[in-house]
Design goal:
The chain is α/β, with parallel strands linked by helices. Among the domains are: 87 residues, D-Maltodextrin-Binding Protein, domain 2, CATH 3.40.190.10; 77 residues, 3-Layer(aba) Sandwich (D-Maltodextrin-Binding Protein, domain 2); 88 residues, ACT domain (Alpha-Beta Plaits), CATH 3.30.70. The strands form three sheets. Strands 1, 2, 3, 4, 5, 11 and 16 form a seven-stranded mixed beta sheet that branches. Strands 8-7-9-6-10 form a five-stranded mixed beta sheet. Helix 1 packs across helix 3, helix 2 runs antiparallel to helix 3 and helix 11 runs antiparallel to helix 12. It is globular and about 75 Å long. It starts with 9 loop residues before the first helix and ends with a strand.
Amino acid sequence: MTRKGEPASAKDLKAFRVQIDKLDLQILKLMNERADFAAKIGKVKTDNNDSVFSPAREEEVIANVLSANNGPLPEVTIRAIYREIISGSRALQRIDKVAFLGPEYSFSHIAALHRFGRGAEYMGVTNIAAVFEEVSRRHVDYGVVPLENSTDGRVADTLDMFVRLPQIRICSEVRLHVHHNLLANCEQTEISRIYSKPQALSQCRNWIAKNVPQASLHEVSSTTTATQFAKAQPGAAAVASREAAVQYGVRILFPNIEDSPHNETRFAVIGQHDSGRTGNDKTAVMFMIPHSPGSLADILGIFKQNKVNLTWIESFPYASAKGEYVFFLECVGHQEDAKVKKTLSLVESKCEKIYILGSFPLAPLTE
């Protein structure tokens, strides 16, 4: 054993590795014991026709582990480890099929991996409408769609699909801290074209104008497609994720080029069912109200009177009726909480139409 401050010898190093090998075998044994119990739970769920994916329970498991974590591993590492443990255990019960706005290593794919891990089966589709359709037709169990961005605001295509398919439920959310990178296999001064999807270019517009003013900007369908162009074309660069750079072998010239250091995209996990209560939930609602002065203020007043906090509100044109709008809002609490239940009942009495899109656990910001 070395004294404090003394360098470890080769003998000490070997002893440390022996201990790590022993611990690895213990960890493996415990993980498989845990998986056995997960499989038994899966059988109970199957017998009762319950969903295998339970965001509320998964958040409870991770919160329980994090509360006992004294380090040295940081929270982000513990979350990543348990995400895959839970994903693998879930796959023993049933392999979920998940649709996302593709292709692979787009930010929607990254968000899906953060929520479901590597144990799920993924399907990349070409647009947001297709994600909803795959869920609606039960070709997949869940879909992951962008809902809003801290820079660009709401994602209109997602809101439009909730209007078209209001029976689809939000059962979870993913908050992704979006870091954009400038990828290229040439030098900065040689870049003549930069490719990316419109939202990514918008979120980096100031950085690009200052640092690569000679380059023309070209919109493509995804950041992954942009990365493929950067790899194949001389003088081309892409704004994309670190994961895309690694996957396609394109060099990261500049990391974290987003104009806002707080750039975040929130994704909705959509499916056929709600999430259970965790005590730390949100509820999403879509409604239409009479086209008269003060009608929206009356609705908002109900939330205020019942002390139910609103975290998000959006208006969206209703295509089937010229000049009419659909409203989306989220409030703190689960729809089964007494206070929220009472509030939504009062709101319903003032609305022409109302749809509860789902209750789900508040998600932490994920790097």
